[in-house]
Amino acid sequence: MSVAIDIIVTAPCWERQAGLDELTESTVRECVAQTAAPLARDCELSVNFTDDATIRALNAQWRGIDKPTNVLSFETPGPLDKRLALGDIVIAHETVAREAAEQDKSFDAHLTHLLIHGFLHLIGYDHQTPREADEMEALERRIAAALGLTDPYEGSDPVAELSETGKSKGDV
Prior knowledge:
Elements: E1 4-9, H1 20-35, E2 44-50, H2 52-63, E3 71-75, E4 85-92, H3 93-102, H4 107-122, H5 130-146, E5 169-170
Parallel strand pairs: 1-2, 2-4
Antiparallel strand pairs: 3-4, 3-5
């Protein structure tokens, strides 16, 4: 099963990020393989690489939270196996860079984790309850390991930082 990916760069800060297309494609490919989600044939998704100002406006509009976040996912409604468009993932460069530095991770490792997280939201995973968070985080860890990365939650308590309820999902 393959997923067509529309990669959109809407902020100049991403233009100096080498290998962005390849990183995105390999991450989505591994997410599809590891989840075995019942995806519609020839489905697609978009990934918008943007900045803090843009994601802040989206976060305020769709989640009522007037601050930038690292990733937002906008799932297309309907049964997963019938959706030709899975939805949209939006990622903010400045927040990714800041969090990677704070967490002592490489930019690419943190970006990969956010792509995994965003993709899982598009296929129906969430982290509103501790049980949901445990399931989603275990899958994130498995996909990250398959990509050769260390545990993206190592040294943190992700269940304690559940996201707000809203039409879109964000904040790892």
